[in-house]
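Researcher: Structure prediction, please.
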Amino acid sequence: MAKLGLFLSITTIIGALSFAGLSSPAAADAPCVTKVFKTELAKNACAKGGQKAAKDAMKAWNKEKKIKSCNQCHSKLAPNYELKKDGLDQFKKLGGK
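Model: Predicted structure follows.
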């Protein structure tokens, strides 16, 4: 009986790891939720690598411009990343296109 319990435990762990391995790449390659882009940066990043690439591009831009939080320009983050009323203006004032 103990061998059966051990076998079931190992099977459960292997199954969970297999499922996690299969679902991670799909999330990384997810397309952008937004379909209308107001910036070239987000549009180009989404075209190249989906949601993850757009988020990475914006994080790099924020770091370059010394912006500490995405919430400076966005009222809501994932999945739609809604902008504040002045979010696009802030982006443009810092040199964004």
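Model: Residues 2-28 form the longest helix (27 residues).
Researcher: Thanks, that helps.
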